[in-house]
Each structure stands twice: as C-alpha cells, then as structure tokens.
Amino acid sequence: AQTVTQSQPEMSVQEAETVTLSCTYDTSENNYYLFWYKQPPSRQMILVIRQEAYKQQNATENRFSVNFQKAAKSFSLKISDSQLGDTAMYFCAFMKHFPGGTSYGKLTFGQGTILTVHP
Amino acid sequence: NAGVTQTPKFQVLKTGQSMTLQCAQDMNHNSMYWYRQDPGMGLRLIYYSASEGTTDKGEVPNGYNVSRLNKREFSLRLESAAPSQTSVYFCASSEGIERRQPQHFGDGTRLSIL
Q: In this predicted model, what pLDDT tens digit does every residue of A74-100 receive, in sequence order?
C-alpha cells in the first residue's frame, strides 16, 4: 500500500516571496504519478501540478514548480511570487500506474498543508 | 462547464436518520469516487466505481453504501447516520482509459450529524 506524508501542517509566507511545501511518499511501485492539489476556502479541489515518475525533468506550471527526488521519494512544491489567492490547503497525492487495461486513477492523499499568504 | 456536481452542499442530520448524497459528472468519465475529508486526515476513499455497473470498497466503507446509477451518476447513502460520519464529502471522477488523467472533484458536501 502507498502512503503519502506531508509533515508541515501549516505554513505562512509574505506576498511576493517564495515558499516550499514538503511531501514524501512510500511505495514499492516504479511507475506512478504525483500531484499537488489546492483546496481554497471554497472547498473545491483544484489540480495545481502533476509529475510522471518516469520523467526526470521537474514539472512546472507558471509560478508553481516541483522538486521530484525519486530515490528519496520526495515531491516538494515551490510557489514563487506568492499571491494572496494562493492561500489554501495543499494536498500531495499519489496515483499508481496501471500498465495495460484501464486505470481507475485511485489517488492516495497526504494530510494537507495549510498555506497562508500575508500581505 | 459543470464538471462534477454534488448535492446537497450542506446537510444536518440527527443520529439514526438516513440520507443519500448525489453526484453527477458530465465529462463522460468511466470512473467515479467518494471521499471523506476529516481534519488532519486528508482525503480518504470510501467507495469507488471503476466503470458503470461496478463498485468497490475503499479505505473507509463501513456505514456507507453506493449506487452507480448510470455512467453519469454515483450516489452515496448513509443508512443510519452516526456522529462519526460528520465530515466533508467529495465526489470525484476520472477517465479510466487515459491513465495519466487525475481526478476531477466536486465542491463537496458538508454533513453534520447531531
């Protein structure tokens, strides 16, 4: 079974600064996907960024980037130029790769990190 | 652009009452899921439906039942609500064939059981 751990229950950052959220996971799988989801006070879950384990290059999406360390089973999220709208709960998630057939894409989530961006 | 729609958004029940949470998606996704979110626990999978006509237990299925009514709809039923089921419930869907696609979530249902 897979486990995902987010060791930072809460983080805060000043507007325009950079913050990094940590995530580690445990799996015996070699092929998998990792995601960061954002959950603002509205409670909707929003996909921020994803990473395929077979890719060595770290994924980036505008101000969001990841540091994927496969050997260390670490997947941190860096938010640059933080904005007030980035205030939310952030979840790291793992999805197993299913070779052949169909995958139902079941996700395993971490506990979440509450990020507050201060003006 | 509805995506995943959950109803109701809020509900208060008394212990022992029953209710059904509704979920519908308009993305023609094969797979659907029900999660609950409790403080400090992240999201935990209750039940999922890999495809129309199939349902399977997730991590925390006790006290719940589900029905995959058709490809679009996946309901979650609490037969006899208990205070421990007070939580926020999320429905999600994904395209099962495209393995690289993550799940799309509804806005959640806040359920309180007194």
A: 999 999 999 999 999 899 998 877 665
Q: Any idea what the Cα angle at residue B93 is, between residues A88 and A8, rounded to 5°?
A: 30
- What single-letter amino acid sits at B102? P
What residues are paired with A47 via a beta bridge?
A37
Q: Which residues of B touch A31 (CB under 8 A)?
A: none
Give me the DSSP letters along B8-27.
Answer: -SEEEE-TT--EEEEEEESS
The SS3 call for residue B85 is: helix
Smallest Cα–Cα separation from A109: which of A39, A11, A42, A58?
A39
CA distance A50 to A57: 12
- Partners of A104 on chain B (C-beta within 8 Å) are 30-31, 48, 50-51, 94, 96
